[in-house]
Design goal:
With 412 residues, this protein is mainly beta. It folds into four domains: 133 residues, no CATH class; 60 residues, no CATH class; 42 residues, no CATH class; 87 residues, Immunoglobulins (Immunoglobulin-like), CATH 2.60.40.10. The protein has two helices and 24 strands. The strands form eleven sheets. Strands 19-24-23-21 form a four-stranded mixed beta sheet, with no helix packed on it. The two termini are 36 Å apart.
């Protein structure tokens, strides 16, 4: 319950700093508490340890209180819960108060990125020898034209053109019967009834769960079955021959089977054509310039379609929060990133955060081409590495991040 409250409060602080829309950037703070594990104790590639705690005696001279944070918050010692505003360590039940960039709050100690990453927070040194989970710095400019204009974990909201928080960054942002879809950062039901409930554009509701479809092409189905082009499930098909034999007007004979003709009904608007792969009507086109804003030209169909942004997903050998060694390469893979329309992607790797003294600068692009990247950490400490993908029509994904905690090469 305390972690839940901490997440909501701290992410709300980010929204305030990042030019949110006044409603916590779309995060619903009225949702009930979630009692599920965040999964921090089961992340692959990390040693299982007890949650880190701050055992140092609070020192008023080392608490970082910027001038724009009002000092002297009136509170009984140890009475403030996680996320509540504070001005000294002893006011917090956790024994740790952070104050950075005009924000303050009771927080938790941390050791590596994995301790905070599920909350969309950063593990940073808030004073000498003490690291804590704190919100990332807000975007310098609240206005945005695409997700590329917003700092993680903020996204560009289409309805307001502002950088704001997504609906979720982990499962705890959602209702107890929902989960956070990582690519879209939207909540979807754990148990679905229809594909319309699945937020990932390439997932379908199959046997009550949003996930991979049963099939994507007929060769994956049994003889006498075809892969339904929109439902992506194997279905029985009546036999037919080249001369016909399909009794229903909205079927066509393909490879000896009667399959749905998605373009059986003509398009209702003049100048539109039907895409036989999707059944959607759109303007005929030769390239993206022939299509209206927000649309792109299908390379196979020559029909304009509504262009959904791609999804970026990145991982290493041990997941999205891993250990590394200074000077030794860290392999990152963004091959799971997808374009909903299957039109191809361009990858952009960058640095989100780096230890003091590193040659890597926040926001700098990494010299990587394609879906994979090798990163060479040069300092011990915490690196955050980001991936955005752009489709051929110019739509940009939200940023996916991977945390790398590096030790000196001589460390055991």
């Amino acid at each position: 319950m305390a972690l839940r409250f901490f997440l909501i409060m701290t992410l709300a602080l980010v929204a305030c700093g990042g030019g949110g829309d006044g409603v916590n950037g779309g995060v619903d703070t009225t949702r009930g508490a979630d009692t599920r594990s965040s999964g921090l104790d089961t992340l692959p590639g990390l040693d299982t340890v007890d949650p880190p705690t701050d055992t140092a005696e609070p020192d008023p001279d080392t608490v970082l209180i910027p001038p724009d944070v009002p000092p002297g918050i009136d509170a009984e010692p140890g009475s403030l819960e996680l996320g509540e505003k504070c001005s000294a360590d002893d006011q917090c039940a956790s024994g740790l108060c952070f104050a950075v960039a005009g924000m303050s709050g009771c927080t938790l100690a941390c050791e590596i990125t994995a301790d905070c990453q599920a909350f969309g927070l950063l593990c940073v040194a808030i004073r000498d020898g003490v690291r804590a989970c704190v919100p990332p710095p807000p975007s310098a400019d609240a206005d945005c034209a695409s997700h590329a204009d917003c700092a993680y974990p903020l996204v560009c909201r289409e309805d307001t053109a502002w950088c704001a928080l997504p609906e979720c960054t982990w499962d705890g942002d959602c209702q107890p019967d929902e989960e956070c879809e990582p690519g879209t950062r939207r909540c979807q039901p754990l148990a679905c009834v229809s594909t319309y409930e699945c937020e990932h554009p390439l997932e379908v509701c199959f046997e009550g769960t949003c996930g991979e479809p049963e099939c994507t092409e007929t060769s994956e189905c049994d003889p006498g079955q075809f892969c339904h082009p929109t439902q992506l499930q194997c279905q029985d098909a009546p036999p037919c021959n080249d001369e016909g034999g399909c009794n229903m007007y909205n079927q066509v004979c393909v490879d000896g089977m009667c399959v749905p003709d998605l373009c059986a009904a003509p398009c209702s608007h003049e100048g539109e054509e039907c895409d036989p792969a999707t059944g959607e009507c759109g303007k005929s086109c030769g390239d993206n310039g022939d299509c209206p804003p927000g649309s792109a030209c299908g390379t196979a169909s020559g029909v304009c379609y509504v262009n959904d942004p791609p999804l970026s997903l990145v991982s290493g050998e041990a997941g999205t929060a891993i250990n590394g060694v200074v000077g030794q390469p860290v392999a990152m893979d963004g091959g799971a990133s997808v374009d909903p329309e299957g039109e191809g992607l361009m990858w952009e790797w960058s640095v989100g955060a780096a230890p003091t003294g590193s040659i890597y600068v926040q926001g700098a692009a990494l010299d990587c081409a394609g879906s994979s990247c090798q990163f060479f950490p040069d300092r011990p400490g915490q690196f955050l590495l980001g991936l955005r993908v752009t489709d051929l029509a110019g739509a940009v994904s939200t940023q996916a991040q991977m945390g790398v905690w590096t030790q000196p090469i001589w460390a055991e």
